[in-house]
Specification:
By secondary structure, this protein is an alpha/beta fold. The protein contains nine helices and 14 strands. It folds into two domains: 128 residues, no CATH class; 261 residues, Metallo-dependent phosphatases (Purple Acid Phosphatase, chain A, domain 2). The protein is globular and about 85 Å long. The strands form three sheets. It has a six-stranded mixed sheet, with helices on one face. Helix 2 packs across helix 3.
């Protein structure tokens, strides 16, 4: 609870500062008492009070939530908040940068031109700030309306000298972080995603965790869609940190256990073979590769249910091994240099659902929290791929970080 209160006080400070500075810029220290001032002043007082009250309300509701609707309502509320305050913040940044020279240079007052009156620096910067402030508003709005459903298929061709000859050309589709509750009853977007998956003619479809936000009820009604995913060899899945029901206060341990049991059975109902700290051998033309799947293992506060040793001990000397582990932090902590998995597939980060990628350069706030946050990484002869997620969580938007379907073509060479 004290963490929620600390977050609320930080918000009070940030929001209060933003609106106070806007008041000073727009109306001055001694504003005229006209209708512009009254309306503007009321907006700069009422809006922060409403938003701060909303954050306090959801901070009280989310820990005791009994369904995903509370999460979805909070996501909508958060989006509205950002649509209001991101433009304000951008305006202040542009305006502030433009006024920096005034701190060091004192220019003599200019005489106004009778024929061509000059616009003041403050007014000019205000107009530029307003123009620049539209960028985050439009970008976020696009992310809500289009970006979260703009499924993107990424193609990767990877060459491994130890890949058995029978598996040369193996096609693997990876999806991750479905968070089904975030879609509510809107089934259409994921129908499109399934069509894109099937169009790749995969041999394996591997789902790397976070089927739900927290509740088993989120999985109801999706069977008809996900059972249509085709894979010539099979469809396999693992659990993510959101699949254990750890993000709610349950009335009893029995209720939490029942929720978890239903989530486990949902993987089977949706057509996936769930791997829980175990490995299987995939055989083709007398040759084998190993596929391992561990439960979630992450740095605190994320849970550590994964048992890599148990999964590794079930392999049987296969020349090529694939590991599914939801949290990419697990790769550096327990995989690299310790267990000879050739390719590890992870998810979890969503790329923070915000960022940009230009050629080989990419950026997202996720890079400040996760060492490996999106795309392909290599240490020695071991590879990690972090999928950006197919669904979304919290804010119902993706800006510059589209939902991802990853297609791997493995070659022997």
């Amino acid at each position: 609870m004290r963490y929620h209160l600390a977050f609320l006080w930080i918000l009070v400070l940030v929001v209060g500062t933003i609106d106070f500075l806007l008041w000073r810029i727009l109306f001055g220290s001694k504003p005229r008492k006209n209708w512009h001032t009254w309306i503007g002043g009321a907006g700069l007082i009422v809006a922060p009070v409403l938003f701060l009250s909303g954050f306090f309300y959801f901070g009280m509701q989310i820990p005791d939530a009994s369904s995903h609707e509370v999460y979805n309502s909070f996501g909508t509320f958060l989006t509205i908040f950002l649509l209001v305050y991101l433009p304000k913040l951008f305006f202040l940044i542009v305006y502030g940068i433009g006024r920096i020279p005034d701190l060091f240079i004192r220019k003599p007052a200019r005489q106004p031109d009778r024929h061509y009156p000059r616009i003041s620096r403050a007014k000019f910067l205000s107009q530029i700030g307003i123009i620049m402030a539209t960028a985050p508003f439009v970008g976020l709005l696009f992310g809500v309306l289009k970006g979260r459903f703009a499924f993107y298929t990424r193609q990767l061709k990877m060459v491994f000298p130890n890949l058995p000859k029978a598996f040369d050309g193996l096609r693997i589709v990876q999806i991750s972080d479905l968070h089904l509750g975030s879609f509510g009853t809107n089934r259409e977007p994921l129908k499109e995603a399934v069509e894109l998956i099937n169009a790749e003619n995969p041999d394996l479809v591997l789902f790397t965790g976070d089927l739900v936000n927290n509740f088993a009820g989120e999985t109801r009604g999706w069977e008809e869609i996900f059972q249509k995913i085709n894979a010539t060899i099979g469809k396999y899945s693992i659990l993510g940190n959101h699949d254990y029901g750890d993000y709610s206060t349950w009335p009893s341990e029995q209720r939490k256990a029942a929720n978890f049991k239903s989530i486990l059975s949902a993987h089977r109902r949706l057509g996936f073979h769930l791997l829980r700290n175990e490995s299987i051998a995939i055989e083709k033309e007398g040759e084998k590769i190993a596929l391992s799947g561990v439960e979630n293992w992450g740095h605190p506060p994320f849970p550590q249910y994964g048992d890599l040793a148990a999964a590794w001990n079930q392999t049987n000397g296969e020349a090529f091994k694939i590991l599914m582990s939801h949290d990419p932090d697990h790769w550096d902590s327990e995989v690299v240099g310790n267990k000879r998995y050739d390719l590890t597939l992870a998810g979890h980060t969503h790329g923070m659902q915000f960022g940009f990628e230009i050629g080989k350069y990419n950026w997202s706030p996720a890079k400040y929290k996760f060492k490996r946050w999106a795309g392909l990484y290599q240490v020695g002869k071991q590879f990690l791929y972090v999928n950006r997620g197919l669904g979304y969580l919290g804010m119902p938007a993706r800006v510059g970080m589209p939902p991802e379907i990853t297609v791997f073509t493995l070659r022997r060479g």
